[in-house]
Design goal:
Structural class: alpha/beta
Number of strands: 9
Number of helices: 10
Distance between the termini: 35 Å
Mean pLDDT: 88
Radius of gyration: 18 Å
Helix content: 40-55%
CATH architecture: 3-Layer(aba) Sandwich
CATH superfamily: NAD(P)-binding Rossmann-like Domain
CATH topology: Rossmann fold
Number of domains: 1
Strand order of the largest sheet: 3-2-1-4-5-6-9
Order of helices and strands: EHEHEHEHEHEEHHEHEHH
Strand content: 5-15%
Shape: globular
Length: 273
């Protein structure tokens, strides 16, 4: 873990954003800064975090940079400690668990190391960091946690089996913890994006040129997804699904036969190979 890039002044809420080096996480960090927050930026790529930190400082925010690999136990422990024991630094008021990745292919064909890494990042890191910050937020009666799940949270994902399962966990976990702290003054919210143009596709090996029909029309850009998520968090919405097509998809799978949902999901994911 790197040392803080600069001291953080008091008087402004402090938001910690994981996966802040690109995509939705980067845009959420920008929105938090514009909304009067100082930032702790977390990701593996320190150089990209420093670039974003410089931009946000020019706009008036104070920023810490924490280079940590949240797929590893050491990286999780480092950020966990920053949340639970600030060590003389200002405590975090808002946690944004955005870091995550997926793989595409038949589970039987994919290396198990990548599947376990998804569970470590998408599930274990999110649980550890949420647990580290939540007791203090509840005691203070303010702040909150925004967990980035996925439209995949609502349905099984043949061809992205582990990813969909991890995001289903994130959504269920978020809604359950939210209910546990209701009335405390702490917000616990989930953002469930659909297809979004980010670095996710490159890491997952996803093709974006083969999608057809509604799946092709449903693509969104990171800034609009992040804006919907941040506004949903500010309004204390339990779940935010950006985009009208995505909302319709999330709603419809509740009533369709599970066998039909599986087949439709598999058809969409096959277009990504």
């Amino acid at each position: 873990m790197s040392e803080p890039s600069a001291p953080v002044r008091s008087g402004r809420p402090l938001a910690l954003v994981t996966g802040a080096s690109g995509g939705i996480g980067e845009e959420l960090a920008r929105l938090a800064a514009r909304d009067g927050h100082d930032l702790v930026l977390v990701a593996r790529r320190a150089e990209r975090l420093e670039e974003l930190a410089a931009e946000l400082r020019r706009d008036g925010a104070e920023v810490e940079v924490v280079a940590a690999d949240l797929e590893s136990d050491a990286g999780q422990a480092a950020v966990e400690a920053r949340l639970a024991e600030p060590g003389g630094r200002r405590p975090v008021d808002v946690l944004v668990n955005n870091a995550g990745f997926g793989t595409v292919g038949r589970f039987v064909d994919l290396p198990v190391e990548g599947e376990l890494a998804q569970i470590a990042l998408n599930v274990s890191a999110l649980v550890r960091l949420t647990r580290a910050v939540l007791p203090r937020l509840v005691d203070a009666g303010r702040g909150g946690v925004l967990n980035v799940a996925s439209l995949a949270s609502f349905e099984p994902g043949p061809g992205m089996a582990t990813y969909s399962a991890t995001k289903a966990f994130v959504l269920s976990f978020t809604e359950a913890v939210r209910e546990e702290v209701v009335g405390s003054g702490v917000r616990v919210c989930a953002l469930c994006p659909g297809f979004t143009h980010t670095g996710f596709q490159e890491r997952a090996g996803v093709r974006t040129d083969g999608l057809a029909g509604l799946a092709a029309l449903a693509w969104q850009d990171a800034p609009e997804v992040a804006r919907a998520g941040w506004e949903g968090f500010a309004a204390d919405r339990a779940v935010t699904v950006p985009g009208s097509l995505n909302k319709a998809a999330a709603f419809s799978v509740r009533f369709a036969p599970r066998s039909a949902v599986r087949k439709l999901s598999a058809r969409v994911v096959r277009q990504l190979h």
